[in-house]
Amino acid sequence: MKLEGGKIAGSELVFLMIGFTLGSSLILSPAQAAKHDDWLAILAGLGEGLVFALIYTTLAVRFPGKTLIQFNDIIYGPYLGKIISLGYLWYFLQLGSLVLRNFGDFFTTIIYPETPMIVFIVLVALICASAVRNGIEVIARCSILLVVFTFVVIFGTAILLAKDMKFTNLLPVFDIPLREFIKASHSAATFPFGETVAFLMVIPFLKKVKEAKTSSIIALIMAAMLLVVVAVRDTAVLGITKTISTYPAYQAVRLIDVGKILTRLEILIAINLLSMGFLKIAVLYYGAVLGTAQLLKLRSYLPLVLPMGAFMVSLSTLQFGSNIENINFAQEIYPYYALPFQVGLPLISLLIAILRGVPKKMKGAKK
Amino acid sequence: MLQRIFKKIHVQQILNQNVQEKDSASPKVSQDNLSRDLKQNLKMLRNILGPSSDVVIREFSFGCEEKINAALIFLDGMTNKTIINESIIKPLMYHARLISPEELRPTNSIEIIKRTMLSVGEVKKVTPLEEAINDCLAGDTILLINGFHEALVVSTKGWEARSVEEPKTEAVVRGPREGFTETLRVNTALLRRKICNSNFILETLQLGQKTKTNVCIAYLMGVANPRLVEEVKSRLKRIKTDAILESGYIEEFIEDAPFSPFPTMANSEKPDVVAAKILEGRVAILVDGTPMVLTVPMVFIESFQSAEDYYSRPYYASLVRTLRFLAFLITITAPAAYVALTTFHQEFIPTPLLITMAAAREGTPFPAVAEALIMGTIFEILREAGVRLPRPIGSAISIVGALVIGESAVSAGLIGAPMVIVISLTAIASFVIPSQSDVAALARLILTILAGFLGAFGIIIGLLGGLIHLCALRSFGTPYFSPLSPLSLLDLKDVFFRVPMWAMLTRPRGIGWHDFKRQKWGLMPRPPRKNE
Amino acid sequence: MVKRGSLFLRILAISLIILLTAGCWNRRELDTLAIVSGTGIDKPEEPGKVQITVQIIKPGEMKAPQAGGGGEGGSGGQKPYWTVTATGDTVFDTIREMAHKSNRKLFFPHNEIIILGEDAAEEGVQKYLDFFARDHEPRWLAWVLVGKNTASEVLETKAELEKVPAISISKLIEARGATSEASAVTLHEFLTRLMSKTTAPVASLIEVSGQGKEKTALLTGTAVFKKDKLAGYLNKTETRGLLWVLNEIKSGIIDVECPGGKGKVSLEIIRARSKIIPEIKDNTLHLAVEIDEEGNLGSQMCSDDLTSESAWKTLEKNQAAVIHNEVMAALKKARELNTDIFGFGEAVHKKYPKLWKDIEDKWDEFFPNLEVAVIVDAKLRRSGLITKTVKPE
């Protein structure tokens, strides 16, 4: 009995991964600690992220058709493997709840101060739940249109803001101490790029597993380019005020004013956030639900969708008291908290797999 | 919950079906064969056909020395009298005398008659009574001859039918004007005339236990994917219902997503449209008694393609195509966007416009969302009234709608003027995509309500939900939202713009993709080269 | 298939239930909004308090004159706006305080100007502007002005061509390009300068002239801040000097002497570009301001023949001299106030980041003695529809 019958194409994986990576990093600029050098930090973070992606895809190609949860069992044995898998499920859920929380904070801050945050969180979670129920194929298909739209919005706003851009705001290049720069670029690596570890739950459903490597690399590079465009746009437009903005992208787009007609377009940023964040949550949610089903050896993951969603929703509301706590967590703790999940465990898994030469020996036994 | 209810309904349906089957096996139509005795045969027929006033039974005798008794049974109104008179009765009565009596013996007369005397195109020998009666009910004439347990069924179908006219629903400026009629044979002929190809297959089956409606599957062998054809056939064969009166009946029995508001089967009244779709590898389902021909599989963007796109020049066609997408977006989101902007996001309206809109709202009693819903409902009512009413009264409706409701409501201060503009814009835009207009009305309603509660967030959530649904839908194995997602770059040639005909090298990928080559490369017109 | 359909229905049902039970929090109809078009901040007599004046548009009255068939402006007698003043402890508090006076909720996204009264500006503006930067309603594109009188007085002036004074002032600023003698500073630019360690914030300066009912507002130059406190004013000439350096000259008229010396010639600025170039020469920091300007001959009030090459060259030279003088005037004033309104510090920072770390904190001592070379390249391009002036040959 297969839990997931869908298959996705390599191009769909590219779009999905771009959407996932842009996710909430579109509005919460990933390396804000690097001030006006954040675009450099993002590029440096991409370098680190690509290494991560190589580890993930090597693992995925080594265990074709097996998700993270399934090959954890193979690599670490049934008991330790399950514990590690549980850790990942927690990580996915928590990450999903963080993004949900970002949604809630964003919408209550900018447009709906009087509406309870839970309304946004629940509605987004519901939409994600319906996508998850439809399977990875549908999530991947949704990504195409949404990512293309986001693409258009990012470049469109950049063009509309062209006359307000002061590229001298980017000078002097590399103005921060190396230590801080590395810290910022590492946080960029862990904030959007390393989170693609969740795709270890998706890549097994690729039509051609071999495409995983190229697709992920293309996706990460494209996403990083878009993030750089966004970072440069925001810095060039906002200058020093970017460092105090909660949502730099939103603030920058608010300054669009072309002939008093093309103005007040910031709703586009909200749409972008919603569509990209939707993809991110859907993938994480899907990973958690599918992973749990595989862990518990269920025949279908559908019964898990709503309970897991409820758990994620409650987690997102209980996790932080305020957005300042959220920001502090994201900047100070998260880069280290995420390390074992993003690099440590995958790297160890890969090493053990190579040393034990596992996939060949165990393939027939399992499944 | 709902699932359970539907399951129950399903069970009930099965029960009903059993009843029907029993019903259809009633003693009236016996499984008997014909007997050799004409009298008894006629008695049986009278018994079965009952007191219907349109049944004509004409008894006569022919032959010169030994008179042979015979009878013609046909339905008045469904048969061509000229054929019966000139090609059946006349030869039998007059020409039978010219044949030597030895040849025309009572023992072999049926064969002789069939071979030499009936000057009609289609004659067949039938033994089972039921088959003869079914043919008779379809407009053929039964010729019974005493002493034979076989009947001759002569094709005499002929009835008053609407002639081939220009379809009312899909008007074109450029392109063929003929439309399908209610007669299946005419329709298949119209198609056959477009596709003169021996691979063009028309398979007929009868559906509907009571109506015995002829349903015809049309496809181009070698182009249509055989698996698709098989799927269509097997789904059609699953239908066990008493009546098929319109292709809509069939649609609901065999569509992929019965609960989806989106249609997953396209219909058209124009032979050229259906022929084009068959040539792309689709399968058409023609139903006797309706000019609406179904084609499967359907993709979402099909609603945005019109026949004329392919007959007019590509630039303009592409422009119009894009406009249709815009119109669809307007028709589903305009009232919702207006509600969201005026009640949640006033900061997104440019200042002068905001002042004008605020001035128009000054003193109107209803909240904007209520205004939108009221006006939307009134519009739907007006439209429904306009469709059902005869044409002359229809114009009266539009006057009442436009003047009384639009103009007066504004001047009386009940409704803000901008809302009237938004609703009329929505209405006009909804006419651009007729095949999705009912979905659009539903989507508009849902989005307006969502916008009324949560503004733009609600609209985006609604649209996302719609997108997920569209991406999850399939029509006979083809993803409904293809070629946009799953993305097929090759097929984008016919989505937002239409490339020239000479560049349409392949058939659409999503639809079976059996024989993909449409034409060869390099057909772009160009001046002849020197060495040519 | 059944599952998919019923899920759709289920989600629809859940969403509807959530929405219906939750009600509508942020919903507000257009006619419950008090659209603020301008805000003024003053320091009242009472210490530690803040006085805020807002100008609210009355949409109904805005339309009335047209509907009434025109006639004299404001035939209805009602002004299409309402100016409300309130006093409180903080900005936000005061704005909420107005709910007692206005039945509609103040709505700031369409606020086009923020006027700081002289007293308030002298006291320091950071505490006033934080609200406008933090709250989600006010836009960063609003113009920041300093009123030489109190802000409420400025908002009480009469606008002849526009219906609402605040909108009139905003359009006044947008039309500054004709002379380029008034600066235009959006809240965003103001905040950017406020956040900079060295660059001094500037704002447009607005004054009230006239008496009684005929009071009108006019732009008279630039207000200069030291950190967030008002330090002084630039007059129109100095303002243009500032704008030359900031590369914000759009158009304007330069009056120069006729080469013959009898009368003046007006030259219209067509295009202008400037660059600040810091340089280290002989271990000292120099700054060069390069200004490229192109002008047209606009009008000639003397009878000389200006078409000769020498006269044309003289005109160009005079033009450059005028620009040079304007910049020097601005520079002089800036040195007097010891405010780096030109952003020289940032320019140095960008070019010499290492050096900057040493002088960053000493910039205040550095700036008044900074050597600035102004290099003007002024060109005259066209002479208009006639060449020589209108006079007998």
Tell me the major beta sheet of chain A: 2 strands, antiparallel
Q: How many angstroms separate the termini of chain B?
A: 74 Å
Number of domains of chain B: 3
- The pLDDT mean of chain B sits at 85
Radius of gyration of chain B using CA atoms only: 30 Å
What letter string, H or E per element, gives the SSE order of chain A?
HHHHHHHHEEHHHHH
Binned strand content of chain A: under 5%
**Helicity of chain B, as a percent range:** 40-55%
Into how many domains do the coordinates of chain A divide?
Answer: 1
- In the CATH scheme, the class of chain A would be Mainly Alpha
Protein structure class of chain B: alpha+beta
Can you characterise this structure?
The complex is a heterotrimer of chains A (367), B (532) and C (393). Chain A has 13 helices and two strands. By secondary structure, chain A is mainly alpha-helical. Chain A has one domain (10-363): Amino acid/polyamine transporter I, CATH 1.20.1740. The longest helix of chain A is centred in the first third of the chain and has 43 residues, at 68-110. Mean pLDDT of chain A is 87; it is low at 361-367. Chain B has 532 residues and is of the alpha+beta class. Chain B folds into three domains: 38-154, no CATH class; 184-298, no CATH class; 311-475, no CATH class. Chain B has a five-stranded antiparallel sheet with strand order 1-2-4-5-3, sandwiched between helices. Chain B has a five-stranded antiparallel sheet with strand order 6-7-9-10-8, with helices on both faces. Chain C has 393 residues and is α/β, with parallel strands linked by helices. Chain C has two domains: 30-64 and 77-234; 242-393, Nutrient germinant receptor protein C, domain 3 (GMP Synthetase, Chain A, domain 3, 2-Layer Sandwich). Helices cover 34% and strands 30% of the residues of chain C. The longest helix of chain C is centred in the C-terminal third of the chain and has 29 residues, at 309-337. Chain C is globular, with a radius of gyration of 26 Å. The interface between B and C is large, with 39 and 37 residues.
